[in-house]
Records
---
Amino acid sequence: MCGIVGYIGERNCIPILINGLKRLEYRGYDSAGIGIVDDDSCLIVKNKGKVSLLEDKLESLDLKSSIGLGHTRWATHGIPNEINAHPHSNEDNSIFLIHNGIIENYQVLKKGLMGFGYKFLSETDSEVLVHLIDSFTKRGHNLTKSVQLALHEVEGTYGLAVISSKEPDKIIAARKGSPLVVGIGENENFLASDVSAIIAHTKQIIYLEDGEIAVIKKDEFTAKTIYDNAIEKEVHEISMTLEEIDRGGYAHFMLKEIMEQPESLRNSIRGRIIQSEGDVVLGGLTDVVEKLANSKRIIITACGTSWHAGLVGEYMLEQFCRIPTEVEYASEFRYRNPIIEKDDAIFFISQSGETADTLAALREAKMKGALVLGICNAVGSSIARETNAGVYTHAGPEIGVASTKAFTAQMTVLLLMCLFLASSKGELSKKQMQDILSELDGIPEKIEKALKTNEEIKKIALKLKDAENFIYLGRGYGFPLALEGALKLKEISYIHAEGCPAGEMKHGPIALVDENMPVVFIANKGNSYEKLISNMMEVKARKGIIIALITEGDTHVKEIADFVIEIPETLDVLMPFVASIPLQLLAYHIALLRGCDIDKPRNLAKSVTVE
Ligand code: G6P
């Protein structure tokens, strides 16, 4: 992970870098730094902690420069402190560098460089890069060539940027495995890990690909491979606006994103349903529809919340398409030599489209000849570009580290893909399609209703905020949701929480139940309602505190549970769309009452670009 931003032009780069870093903090926030060229020499300022602390430090220094780089770190090698923060520089301080990724052979390279007298200050893998580049400049190569030659020796992943005070007219950037975009302005150019960092300045974007190196001057951009072959790059005009990525009056991005869900869901559905025909239109799948319909098996691969959406997808695909479906953690799938057949279709779900494990799994599957499809939120992201085809979730930028609106959007797209497939395979009649689509169309209003539980949930949160553990239970579509509810709570409140199929409780988790244990039941009226009530009684018999998400008007559960949250009735398959809302709100309010940093929970990052 880590966030990278760079500027070269005629303006003072400091505010541009700081504002860019603030937008990239979702990628890591344990330390931050900037490097500039000032009076023909390099100057680096860095700090442990968030970008705001770096900003305070810079204010007192009153620096100015028209070229610079900024970095916000998520530690992999070396603890979060000022020395390990980026930029890293060479010994005479004429070259500095920022890096996102992991240099896997850094110890070998470090040993070699130390043999030549190089001294290392930090514990990071990244520092090796700046000394390696320095060693090539000392052999007479210019900066561009030195970066190319250094990268020939590097194993691992990188999105990196380098500046030399001896060639202060350019930034050199290179990418392998970690995202980088170049923004084209007038008499100024930008560099960033993603467009959100530079959207305030330009909408003209160039996506760098693996193995490419960019030479960025204030009025010129060139790209080549690290083996010096010239490349023509396409400039993309992006549509994202600054308002879309601002907090819009909410205390936290997470709350804003929870509240946005009626609208984000409408955006995920927009233009994709022909209600009268009972039809789903997914332009992104047109070229692969036949291959997809003939798939013997579907594998869904993802991480974190996206993996939970994948589980919901498995239930949908098996229910409506009758295609055997498996859901895999990308980090496991990639390294266990999975059996992939030519007639497998593999879905890769990723909000960011940059998660390293998911991307690596995608490359493995592609190499083995499967049809690879993406479900991504970030337009133009690596996974979106490398899959054969796919469908965007269109949830809009998600900034809060705990994923909310991306989750409901992923489930929406999975359902649309599932219905698209079911109808092309003839598994669902026109009438069945119409019924599901009409209910889906009404889900944004049901989410609006579910959002009204906010005040009730605040009261419940106040009663439960000091709990040390939580259990979440559900059956059928409620099971993935139990996992997701527990994940939300632990991510932002640091309360230990476990999600489990309600039927499995008796095989272990029930041993944890006593009068201090809150147990959240996804207890809507659906397929397994009666069985779930039995599980609830088992918890009650052991004095557990029961919080139940129930279907509006259900009086039966009200008599059993300590707290109930009512949600509108809908089809079983659509229940997770509505029931997600109170689970997200419950986690939010508990974390708020515990004084946690909701949008930047400790140790986490939004986009995990390391394996
Ligand atoms: C990180 C984030 C999670 C996210 C997961 C997968 O762990 O903190 O919120 O679900 O990565 O991210 P992706 O972008 O691939 O959906």
Note: The longest strand covers residues 31-38.
---
Amino acid sequence: MGGYEYLLSNINNIDGIGTKTAKLLQKKNINTVFDLLWNLPQNFTDRSNLVKINELQIGKIQTVRIHVKKYNFPRIRNLPNKVLCEDDTGKLDCIFFNSYEGYIRKILPLNEKITISGKINYYKKKYQITNPTYLSKDKSVIKKIHNKYNLTEGITEKKYNFIINQIIEKLPDLKEWLSPRIANLFNNIRWKESIVKLHDYNNIGKHNTKFFKRLVFDEILSSFIVFSETRKSIKKIKKNKKIFSNKYSNETINNFGFNLTKDQINTLKEINVDLSSKSKMFRILQGDVGSGKTIVALLSSLNVIESGYQVAFMSPTEILANQHYNLAKKIFPNEINIDLLTGKTESVSKKIIIFNLKNSSTKMVFGTHSLFQKKTLFKKLGYIIIDEQHKFGVKQRKSLSDKGGSNCDILLMSATPIPRTLTMTIYGDMDLSVISEKPKNRKEIITYSKREDNIKDILTFVKKEIDKGNQIFWVCPLIDDSKKIDHQSAIKKFNSLNKLFHSRVAIIHSKIDNDKKNIILKGFLNKKFDILVSTTIIEVGIDFPNANVIIIENSNKFGLSQLHQLRGRVGRGVNQGKCILMFKNNLSENAKKRIKILKNTNNGFVISNEDMKLRGFGDVLGFKQSGDKKFNLADPIIHEDLFKIAEKEIRRIEIEETNLSKYKTLIKLYDKADIIYDLV
Ligand code: ADP
Ligand code: MG
């Protein structure tokens, strides 16, 4: 049977698709026949009802059978050609812009009876149809129902229907890949039949049907199989065990002024087990902002160093690389040499750093992603840590894992806590460690919302906090005023606050160069300033335990998870954290909801879940940035039950099915990441 090749064929090869149409579709990311299947009908036009002219309804698409009476072809530019028509109840004009006489004479021959269809207008007491598209001598030929599709800008409804109908007709009957038990859950409706139903106007919007769910399940299962295979192939990679006695890490823990949380202890254990095993670690460490992931990563690094390997710690920004480097310098035993290597490092020091990495006298290096393009940098790299990476796709992760070489263990850290089903969907290729409890000394951050016109009260409050010795973040959505006037700008805010607060205010944003940024941040850390005005540049990871208040201007402009991340910048020390969400009047319902959720909970899991309900999971998890595929139909929130069934099924497949060739077609069709080449 086979036949999936047709589905993967380029749209260029399809009847009715010329270069122009192909280009329009490609712009919408539709490249193959298979891609076309997921552009769903949104509505339909019913042309089946023949009406008389005196029954026509203005503004509707209707079908009438008319008698062609007379041509009116004005030989003046810009005036349309007209064909006067009638039936036994009234008159109707067909209007043609940009059409040749010859064409009109052909489609509407004089004195013939023709069935036409189009949108009805009324002009100078007469009915009109402009550029009628469906014309036929034979009453029965006009297809009754025409679907209306999205993403068809520039392509006529008639043409698009012609294309899609042809494809539906040629659909191959693919061999069933679902196991009998699963297929039974969907009434044994096969793939082909499901697609046919998907494009049937009767089923538009019917997502609670067996056929629809079957198609959803196919998507989930295929992605789980891809993950499972990737995971297995990584697991197969053999490495040298890392041998250590926890000497350095224990020494460091003992010097902390705090105890590790239970989750920190457990996750550290999980990582240690992986490090000392014979297979390569490929693990994600998940935990809410401020849950103490960085500490766990650093402690595990010490074990790797003890075992004689080097470590690379990558951060998304130079500010964070700096911060992590400084933290390590503070807590690591003195005899361990570490270094910081960023784009800003001077070339002389760079040479020295690289020299020391190559001869392995430097044990650990901190930096941004550029670090990992230079694997030749190391003598014996054994561990790569990547912070705040949730914008990586599965393909990028795989290539990362390949890059370090087989002896290199990999730990990703993510501060976007997500429910388990979702974790399977996004990080199914990795092992999972979760920190769910926060350090005990943390108090919940208290969140307020205030209208902008309350600024006086807010300034009084800020002054009080400063008098107590506390520090404040003041976040604005824009750097300067140039673009949107209704948004607060950081520069303006800085100028006005700096006057009010006696030059004890600093500002950072992305246009300030890194050296200066670091000086400013250091100054803030050392309490040279009371207020730090910034853009969302502080969103990820920045750790200033003494800052306990964050004020967010135009807070309605930010997403829920982003606000939670920003808020997580405070309340890291012993002082009560406070967050003030500022807004102008007229909040949308959605913005009100976001504020309410933030006021009600500090739990990152709850917040990301709510965020996904409001925005869809692809946006929250940054699929857009990663270029990873989004599902066409499946949604982890809506179809949670199907994800759970698929999770069980993949575990069963992993155990019971050694030969996966049965799933070959499924994977060939659905795996856009294209990372599994052979399933046998
Ligand atoms: P994350 O990386 O998860 O956002 P960090 O590791 O940066 O969190 O930790 C946030 C802050 O909490 C840091 O100042 C860190 O020193 C502190 N911290 C970490 N673990 C603990 C703990 N067990 N008890 C108290 N404070 C902790
Ligand atoms: Mg962090």
Note: Residues 258, 260-261, 264, 287, 289-295, 415, 439, 441, 543, 545, 572 surround adenosine-5'-diphosphate (ligand 1) (CB under 6 Å).
